[in-house]
Each structure stands twice: as structure tokens, then as C-alpha cells.
Amino acid sequence: MATTAQIGVTGLAVMGRNLARNFARKGYSVALHNRTAARTRELVAQYGEEGAFVPTGNPAEFVAALERPRRLVVMVKAGGPTDSVIREFAPLLEPGDMIVDGGNAHFADTRRRERELRGRGIHFVGTGISGGEEGALHGPSIMPGGSVESYAALGPMLEEVAAKAADGSPCVTHIGPDGSGHFVKTVHNGIEYADMQLIGEAYQLLRDVAGYSPARIADVFREWNTGRLDSYLVQITADVLSHRDAATGKPFVDVVEDRAEQKGTGRWTVQIALDLGVPVSSIAEAVFARSLSGHADLRAASRALPGPGARPLDEAGAAAFARQVEQALYASKIVSYTQGFHEIAAGSAEYGWDVDLGAVAAIWRNGCIIRAAFLDRIRAAYDARPGLPSLLGDEGFAGEIGAAQDDWRAVLVAATRQGVPVPGFAAALAHYDALRAERLPAALTQGQRDYFGAHTYRRVDRSGSFHTVWGGDRSEVDA
Fold first, then answer.
1. Which of 144, 204, 414, 474 has the most CB atoms less than 10 A away?
2. How far is the C-alpha of 218 from the C-alpha of 205, rounded, in Å?
3. DSSP labels for 325-379?
4. Which of 115, 23, 37, 109 is nearest to 66 (CA)?
5. Widest pairwise Cα distance in the chain
6. What is the pLDDT of residue 259?
7. Element (H, E) at 8
8. What is the DSSP track for 139-203?
9. Are 99 and 126 in contact (CB under 8 A)?
10. How far is residue 188's CA from residue 177's CA, in Å, rounded to a whole number?
């Protein structure tokens, strides 16, 4: 067993344990620490043959086992538990050492921690890790922030354990300073929320309007997964829909309560977007849909409200409708990714991070939950035009949405007529139409604001701010 470790992991629940095993399998010696020592012993007993592990019993022993510069990976719950670990370990470290936070932290907390530890000469590396427990073991997508110096010492190791894209590139890149890594991971999760909501709406349309069974819908998703919708989430959707409950023999989705939970990163994405003034309506609707699903009493009290019911189509009509749903799903996905990348660009500008959007798309091509075939095209679009203001400004994506929009609109009409809720599809189309509109009702909104609050407005024909005196002769004055 090794006596000096190249990297250490504290917090050996499933994610931490699997990440430690991943490092060991790649040939690194790994120091292990957990508040409950039994978990450390259990890892070594079960997986000790996978590589060089250095089990330790307390923080001082753990830190002493690490070669310098020390690389200490923290895999505990975000918030208070992370702060507690930092308070425990930071006094034992020396200038040049680094603490790597691999949890789902809020980027503002990461910025605070990085600033505080920087003053003590310790590098704090807020690192987004996506891929779940399997990704942690076999190769996740990794989004580290922090200093350039810390990435020079840590990056090569992360590149070894990260997932690899089809071209062999590791799915990790230095995102930027302080909280940029956790910011990008948060937005990744927001896009994930939107993606899952859109897939769920496609499922409900195929079930209620097309009249397909879950097993048949699984076949549809498998077919879609061979084309432009090729993605991890579409793949696992087919698996979930084809699964039957062992106890009842019913489709799995029919024995699960339709109340979706959430851990908070989707809400953070929306809250941060509001602070930045960035429209992420598709992501917001996905968050609200999960919230609504949990209000069981409200839903039960509202089920008798009048409205249309779904009327399944005949076989030919259902097949044609399924093709339209594929178009609507693809177009809506493009919009939700567009909104997510817009938020990352806005955050980068606000905090001076200089995030490379093409590099972000590149590291999401494998390992992460939203990995999808069209991320390679997103990477290419930003590489070709680093200042691209929107993915919808890319000729290829714009052309595809143009070709899809008649079917996209038809799906929304069908959903509305049959009372099937599709907030994600509707929000994505509204966003698209708002972007292409020559004029929006915001001019009227400004008039209303000026009327009741003297908030002023700007004119299209001359510069400056103006206010109308709405009483009397309604004269206009410079503000």
C-alpha cells in the first residue's frame, strides 16, 4: 500500500467513493478520509485491489499523506457541511495547496470561499462534476474553476479520469476563475431540467393524443435516439418506458406517483438568470412544472374544471403526429440550450470569467447527463464564431428550426385543443417568436410604467429619457 498519495478524497458516500476509485484505477495513489471511519475501511475492503489507496483516520493524518502541492477533493453536501470541512482542513494546509469542492455548490458560495482561502495562499477549486455515480466511476464531465496555477497542478489528473468524447478529447476544461465552474454546472443542470420536461411533454402527447402505450412510446424514443435526438436522456427514457413493474405487471410509469422532486440547481439557474436579466423561460417552465406536480391537493381540487379531453388519433394520424412531435421536441431543445448558453455568456461577462462557450459544449459531449450528439455542432458553431450572440444565429440551427416550425406549431395547436399541458414546448416557441418579432408590447409596458410611476421611457426617433405629464394636456418633458 502506498505511503504518499497524489490526491485525496474526503467524503466517501457514493459519489466520493466512486471518484476515488476512478483516480485509483487510473494509476494514482489516493488518500481516503471520511468522518465515519467505517466507510473508509469498507471502501478498502471491497475495492482495495483496484489501485493504491491510503486509508486515514483523521484530518491531520489525511493531510500528512498527501504529496505537495496537496490536492484535497471534498465530496460532501453543499452549504454548511462544505464550510465545516473547509474550517477543519484549511488550518492544516500550506500555501500552494488546493481544496477541490466537487459538490453542487452555489457559485456565490464558491466565490466567497475562493476569496477567503486565496488570502491564505490556498487555492480553492470549485468543480462541477456531472454524470452521477456511474460517471464518477467511469468518467464524468468535469467543470473546474479556480486559478490557472491550480489547474496546472490538477488538470492533468482530471483529464485522466474524465469521460472522453468520440474524438478522444477529455471532457474537462478550465472554465475560468473563482465560481465559474460551479456556475456552468448549475446552468448544465438547468438545461437538464428543461430537457427532461420537454421529453416528458413528448411522452404525454404520444400517450394522450397519439394513443400509444408506454412500450410503444419506448420504441419511438429508441428510433429517435438513432437520429438527431441521439442523447443520454432520450436513451434512458426508452428504458424507463419499456420497464414493467414486477409486483403488478403494469408499466413502471403507471405505478409511480406523478410528483417530481428537485434538489435546487434548477431553481438556482432561474434565480441567477433573473439577477442577470437573462430570459430562460424554457428552464423556468420546467422548474415550475416540477413544483406544480407536487401540489397534490391543488391538483385534486382542480380536476373537475371544465375543458377538453384527449381523443386518441387513428393509426395513420398517430404516426403523422409522432413525426410532428419529434420536430417540436428537437426545436424546443435547441431553444432551451440556446437559453442556457446565453446565461453562461451573461454570467461570464458580469463576473469577468471569459468562459469559452465552445469548450463548454465540447466537455458536455460525454460523461454528463445532457450529453447529446448535437453538442458537437454547438461546439463547432461557437468555435467558428466565438462572439455568436445566440445559437439561433447559427445558420444550421436556424435552418432546422425553420423547417420544424410548422409541425412545432401544429403540435401546440393539437395540445391546446385536447387539453394536454405542454408548458415547455409553448415557452420555447414563444421565446423563438419573441426574438423574431419586429415590435414587442414592451412599448406599451413602458407607457403604463410612465403613467402610474413616472418611470420615463425612450423614443425611437431621438436620444434621451422622456416623461409624459399624463394629467392635463399630456405634454412631454425631458426626464
1. 144
2. 13
3. HHHHHHHHHHHHHHHHHHHHHHHHHHHT----HHHHHHHTSSSSTT-BTTHHHHH
4. 23
5. 89
6. 86
7. strand 7-10
8. --EEEE-S-HHHHHHHHHHHHHHS-B-TTS-BSB----STTHHHHHHHHHHHHHHHHHHHHHHHH
9. no
10. 18
Position 61 scores a pLDDT of: 95
- Separation between Cα atoms, residue 328 and residue 342, nearest integer Å: 21
81-85 long-range contacts, CB within 8 A, separation 24+: 82/109, 82/113, 83/113, 85/10, 85/11
How far apart, in Å, are the Cα atoms of 131 and each of 221, 372, 398, 465? 21, 13, 30, 50
Per-residue pLDDT at 1: 42
Q: What is the pLDDT of residues 91-140, one digit of tens each?
A: 999 999 999 999 999 999 999 999 999 999 999 999 999 999 999 999 99
Q: Answer yes or no: are the C-beta atoms of 447 and 466 closer than 8 Å.
A: no
Measure the CA–CA gap between 231 and 224, rounded to whole angstroms: 9
Q: Is it the case that residue 478 has pLDDT exceeding 90?
A: no
List 130's β-bridge partners, or say none.
Answer: 141
**β-pair type (7-10, 30-33):** parallel
- Positions annotated as catalytic residues are 185, 192
Per-residue model confidence as pLDDT tens digits over 254-269: 999 998 888 889 999 9
Distances (CA, A) of 461 to 76, 381, 465, 466, 476: 57, 36, 12, 12, 14
Count the neighbouring beta carbons within 10 Å of the beta carbon of residue 228.
15
Rg (CA), the chain: 25
pLDDT for the residue 3: 60
- Asked if 139 contacts 161 with a C-beta cutoff of 8 angstroms, the reply is yes
Q: Which amino acid is at 252?
A: F
Give me the mean pLDDT over the 58-82 stretch.
Answer: 95
Q: Could you tell me the three cell numbers for 468? A: 409624459
Q: Ramachandran region of residue 85, left (φ > 0), alpha (ψ -120 to 50) or beta?
A: alpha
pLDDT band at 457 (very low <50, low <70, confident <90, very high): very high
Chain position carrying cell 461557437: 382
